[in-house]
Write a structure and sequence with these properties.
The chain is α/β, with parallel strands linked by helices. The protein has 8 helices and 8 strands; from the N terminus they run E-H-E-H-E-H-E-H-E-H-E-H-H-E-H-E. It has helices at 21-27, 46-59, 87-104, 122-141, 163-177, 188-193, 198-205, 230-239, and strands spanning 4-8, 32-35, 62-67, 108-110, 146-149, 182-187, 209-214, 245-248. It has an 8-stranded parallel beta barrel with strand order 1-2-3-4-5-6-7-8, surrounded by 4 helices. Helix 1 packs parallel to helix 2 (46-59), helix 3 (87-104) runs parallel beside helix 4 (122-141) and helix 4 (122-141) crosses helix 5. The protein is globular, with a radius of gyration of 17 Å. The two termini are 29 Å apart.
């Protein structure tokens, strides 16, 4: 599967302290990493932010993507941006994330939408979600960055499960707020588990895809450990002009979790792709 890979250091290399993982990815032959929000709070102390930036720089890797704060992920949270009570926390977090990205040349943010909550109606949550995505889009645009929105599996209260669900949100933010730098994060694992028609989704939305992530199913393990035809989908994406990073966002099931990928293929040169803004 010829691609330009970026290692998700929040789900991989977890046997190591978080700040040691970028260096471990580099020692394994990769030159790019991505992270979920790497702190315990949306607004961490400056010293923690500085230490994170330094770890990326010292490892000599590119931080290709960073999630905004998503709440307590181990407890089941999947984002805070559609929760009206957390709007200020989300927006404060956006400013910190953009500052990190500006320091490191990062140009993509993953904005997890958030689970449905009982305190507010779905319509209210969607309105707040659109407003906060628009806020994030404006902040990201200051540094030429993109906001990614993704379908998620395994979270029954998360309302975006298909590529079409995400595109509807993106279109709403564009229509109501004029934002043009939101794109679909096509996580092939989540789409497969949720029963989406991945072939059709790629055909329909290839120009809207800003990032791709992979894992196999069942189990969310390494490519080749399950049933998802990842090679076929990546070839299809390439055929549609996708030249971005492919995030390795899977759970290690083997002592050498990267053995499926020859070392010579762990580094590749990104090919320019014309951006389509919607």
């Amino acid at each position: 599967m010829t691609a330009t890979y970026t290692v998700n250091c929040s789900i991989l290399l977890t046997e190591l302290p978080l700040l040691d993982r970028p260096g471990a990815a580099r020692n394994s032959g990769f030159e790019a990493v991505e992270f979920w929000w790497p702190f315990d709070t949306p607004t961490p102390p400056d010293a923690d932010v500085t230490a994170f930036i330094r770890a990326i720089q010292d490892a000599g890797v590119q931080l290709t993507g960073l999630n905004f704060a998503a709440g307590d992920m181990p407890a089941g949270d999947r984002g805070i941006l559609s929760n009206p009570a957390l709007t200020q926390a989300f927006r404060d977090n956006v400013e910190i994330a953009v500052g990190i990205a500006e320091s490191l040349g990062t140009r993509a943010f993953n904005a997890l939408y958030g689970n449905r909550i009982e305190e507010y109606s779905p319509a209210t949550q969607d309105q707040v979600g659109a407003e906060n995505l628009a806020y994030a889009a404006r902040a990201a645009d200051r540094i030429g960055a993109t906001i990614l929105v993704e379908p998620v599996s395994g979270a029954p209260r998360y309302p975006l499960t298909t590529a079409a669900d995400v595109v509807r949100v993106i279109d709403r933010v564009h229509s109501e707020h004029g934002a043009t730098n939101l794109r679909l994060l096509a996580d092939l694992y989540h789409l497969h588990v949720n029963g989406d028609d991945i072939t059709a989704a790629i055909n329909d939305y290839a120009s809207r895809i800003g990032h791709v992530q992979i894992a196999d199913a069942p189990g969310r393990g390494e490519p080749g450990t399950g049933e998802i035809p990842l090679r076929t989908y990546l070839e299809q994406l390439t055929g549609h002009g996708y030249r971005g990073y492919v995030g390795l966002e899977y759970k290690a099931t083997k002592p050498d979790t990267f053995e499926w990928l020859p070392r010579a293929e762990r580094v590749a040169t990104l090919q320019p792709r014309a951006e389509t803004r919607v």
